[in-house]
Structures are given as structure tokens and as C-alpha cells.
Amino acid sequence: MANRIWLWWSSGKDSAWALRTLNQDPAQQVEALVTSINADADRVAMHAVRRTLLEAQGEALGLPVVVAEIPYPCPNGAYEAAAARVIAQAEAAGVTHMAFGDLFLEDIRAYRETLLAESQIEPIFPLWQRNTKDLATEMIEGGLEAFLTCVDPKALDPKLAGRRFDHQLLEELPASVDPCGENGEFHTFVTRSPDFSVDVPVSVGERVERDGFWFADLKPKPGAQ
């Protein structure tokens, strides 16, 4: 019997490639996506992606999106309460595993494991300890397309907000920046994936600075299906 999985979905490339990895294993069955939404802005937490674009991704994948609404600002207690509600919902649905797209940050992994510790759900990390340079290249060459939605100006030029995640970007990244942005240097939104039934095209709107980060406002592309 296949593992019944909910995938913690950020709308970005690591989540998408974790799903790709899981879908290639017959022992894994992803049944839903879980996403934290900033309730005040109605956008994906930290990535600042509009809910409508998130929902379009779910439709392209044929998967329901389970939303964990969190306040802004969000203290740890509020986040953990929202996560606990999702975990309880997953348990009630018969989910056996919760998957995450984390790559190498031990403290983040430990935090996820702690959140699930009192449940019957096991955490899994399909991309864990993959070489991030190789992984970034694999994503691009594997047909994934994404845009940078959030940039940390302490690590990167703010003008990169809104840039396409591609080979040229990887070549331009400073040596101090992880190719997958795992240290928080940047976050992305996926518009195309081998697992999408259709693309989720976007246009890049204004760039704004907020809370020390630069964000590109991605909009559904006019006339897109």
C-alpha cells in the first residue's frame, strides 16, 4: 500500500521538485498540498504569491490545496496552532506522511519533526542533502520554470525580484548564494512543471520593499487559461 502524503507546498521550485520526486515513486501517493497563507494579505507566506495563483497551481496538479491561515505578524505560537490544525485534519483524512521540500537546514528539519512528533504522521524529505547546484540544474533541465518572488537584499541585488529562475540566473549568482536559495536568499513561484497539466503563466508587476525584503508582484497573465 502506498504512503498517503500531504505535501507542504510553498508554491516554489523546491516544493515542486519534491512533488516530482515523490510522483516518480509508486510507493508514494500525494493527495493534497498544504500552504501557509498570510490571512491579512491573502497571499502565500513569505513568497507573497496571490492566492489565485496558488489555486491555479493546485488545479494544474489536480490536487486540493489545504490552507493554513496565519496572522501577520505571526508569532511562533500562532504558526504552531495553525500547523496543529492541519495535522489534525490530515490525521482525520488518513494521511500517513507529511512531505517537505527542505534541502539541508538541520534546524528547520528538526522543527518540522517536532511539529509532527505527537501525531501518527511521519515527516519525509525527498530532496534532503541533494547537492543544490546539481539540483537547481536538474530542475531547469527537467522542464521546471519559475520566477523569483522574494529577494533578500543582504544577499542579492533587489532588481532580481521578478527574474526567471534559469541557467543565466545561476551563472550570475554570487558564490556566497546557495543555487536553490536555501538560506533564504530568494523564493520562487513555479509556472511550469512536468507535473502540471497546464502552465500557470504570470506577468511581473511592481517590485516593493517590505520588512527588509524585496518582492515582485506576480499577476495572472491576461488571457491565460
Task: Write up what this structure looks like.
This protein is an alpha/beta fold. Strand 2 and strand 3 (43-44) form a beta hairpin. It has two domains: 3-124, HUPs (Rossmann fold), CATH 3.40.50.620; 132-220, no CATH class. The model has no long low-confidence stretch (mean pLDDT 97). The chain is built from six helices and ten strands, in the order βαββαβαβαβαβαβββ. The strands form two sheets. Strands 1, 2, 3, 4, 5 and 6 form a six-stranded mixed beta sheet that branches. It has a four-stranded antiparallel beta sheet with strand order 8-7-10-9, with helices on one face. It is globular, with a radius of gyration of 17 Å.
Give structural attributes:
225 residues, alpha/beta, Rossmann fold, 2 domains, six-stranded mixed beta sheet, four-stranded antiparallel beta sheet, globular
Describe the largest sheet. 6 strands, mixed
Based on the structure given, which CATH architecture of the largest domain is correct? 3-Layer(aba) Sandwich
Overall outline: globular
CATH superfamily of the largest domain: HUPs
What name is given to the CATH topology of the largest domain?
Rossmann fold
Please give the domain count: 2
**Unreliable residue runs:** none
Rounded to an integer in angstroms, the radius of gyration calculated over CA atoms is 17 Å
Distance between the termini: 36 Å
Estimate what percentage of residues fall within beta strands: 25-35%
Percent helix? 25-40%
